[in-house]
Amino acid sequence: MQITRPLFDEDEIRSLHRCLDSGWVTQGPLTGEFERSVAQRHRVKHALATTSCTSALHLAAIALDLKAGDEVIVPAFTWITSANCAEYVGARPVFVDVDAATFNLDPRQIEAAIGPRTRAIVAVHLFGLPAPMKPILEIARPRRISVIEDAACAIGSSYAGQPVGGLGDLGCFSFHPRKIVTTGEGGMVTTNDDALAARIASFRNHGATGLRQAERDNPRPYSMATFDNLGYNLRLSDIQAAVGIAQMNKLDRLLAERRAKALRYLRLLAGVGDVVSPAAGEQGHTYQSFVILVREGGRTRRNRIMDHMQQLDIQTRPGTHAVHRLGYYAVKYGLRPEQFPVASLCEDTSITLPLFPGMTDAEQDLVVESLVEGLRL
Ligand SMILES: Cc1ncc(COP(=O)(O)O)c(C=O)c1O
């Protein structure tokens, strides 16, 4: 049993036909349609598609003009690119530990990490549960610190009734196949800020800044855009956008099914000692990943359980990594594992259980049975 499986059907095929029949396959009208569907759903003014959430985060760092000498607050338990986006532009990620109950930034620890060079906070909505945006914004706003929402896992998630992606200055989404909506690879930057949106649009498209004023009203065949920025090619293709449009059309169904299965897992696991279940759904959790913690026995016991489940053909993965322990960051900044003990504990003792559209009750029962057996080994 795979840890996840995307749901594709005739809708994606029809949408792909629309794209291929049109003969337009690079960023174009379907990318625009995909962007509008994300913007509408997440109630933001601008949504700009990119090749991945990693490139969305990179563009966010560029758009905010983060640079050498700047510091960026990043949770210590997240995918590495939440921190890499600061490194890409020469800024320094400053790690802050997470709350094991939510896997998200612990707002009580943010203030201690803020200094005169702090320019941004990357608020990660890990596994689909929104980060505590109210305290984060209360810390950031008076200090003019920008907030990037790493919403890689959080399509469809909302915080206090408001969709994520428009709560901070910029939101970054992923459409990798482990995510609820997938385009194979893909990402999106969201923002309500016109100037930031213009910078993102330029930097994802080679730094193009549009036609000269004189040519705008009457473009000629020989008119060429000016390039005032050093940009990149981080455009999504219309082929990927075609899949994204069909996926967004079924988002409510995907979310409802995922939530029902997550709540069923929570019921099944309620009586299982030694396991900490993820936070319950009322906090806007969409369960992009269903991640449990094994209470006793540390990494050794957790690994034994995962080995046991693998023998029964049940795929699992650790939640994500403690970024401060990864070679690049540990070496560059001389970080020690014990500096962020909760992140280390979460990496060492977390297990992501399979959860995918079409998963049957029998499959879920099998996962829980094998987990319980593993706990007894
Ligand atoms: C929290 C977080 N941020 C960023 C990313 C990067 O997304 P992508 O694979 O689309 O670059 C991921 C992917 O797993 C993630 O989980």
CATH superfamily of the largest domain: Type I PLP-dependent aspartate aminotransferase-like (Major domain)
What's the CATH C level of the largest domain?
Alpha Beta
Number of helices: 14
Number of domains: 2
- Overall strand count: 12
The helix content, as a percent range, equals 40-55%
List the secondary-structure elements in sequence, H or E: HHEHEHEHEHEEEEEHHHHEEHHHEH
Low-confidence stretches: none
Distance between the termini: 21 Å
Mean pLDDT across every amino acid position: 97
**CATH fold name of the largest domain, please?**
Aspartate Aminotransferase, domain 2
Quickly give the structural class.
Answer: alpha/beta
Q: Using only CA atoms, what is the Rg? A: 21 Å
Bound molecules: pyridoxal-5'-phosphate
Give the overall shape, derived from the CA principal axes.
Answer: globular
Multimerization state: single chain
Strand order, sheet with most strands:
1-9-8-5-4-2-3
Q: Strand count, sense and closure of the main sheet?
A: 7 strands, mixed
Please describe the topology of this protein.
Layout: H1 10-22, H2 29-41, E1 46-50, H3 53-63, E2 71-75, H4 81-88, E3 92-96, H5 107-113, E4 118-124, H6 133-140, E5 146-151, E6 158-159, E7 162-163, E8 170-174, E9 187-191, H7 194-204, H8 213-216, H9 238-249, H10 251-269, E10 275-276, E11 290-294, H11 298-311, H12 327-333, H13 341-349, E12 350-353, H14 361-376
The chain binds pyridoxal-5'-phosphate.
Pyridoxal-5'-phosphate binds at residues 52-54, 78-79, 81-82, 124, 126, 150, 152-153, 174, 176, 187.
